[in-house]
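Journal club prep — side note

Before the paper discussion, L.F. wants everyone to see what a predicted structure for a comparable chain looks like in token form. Sequence:
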Amino acid sequence: MVRIEVIANQSVEDDIVEKFEHELPDLEYTILPEVHGKGRNSHKNGNNIWPEENFLLFSYTDEENAKKIKELVETVRNRFPREGISIFAVPACEI
């Protein structure tokens, strides 16, 4: 089992979720809609100085779905190269 985390600008949330819903309709995931922080190139704090916000989508899934998720996120990243889209995977085990 793998924990996949996608952290991206809220402007691409719908694009990513639509890809997942279409290509992986049985995928279970959770979205945290307002995520603040600092990346390599900018701050996303949802305030007057740094008004943009990110979202976090995470899913616990198998290796096969994890590879497909990576491919789907890459297609969105290629379409929106300046939006700051990151994906991470870590091994997970249910206890």
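L.F.'s comment for the group: Residues 12 and 80 are 8 Å apart (CA to CA). Keep this in mind when we get to the figures.
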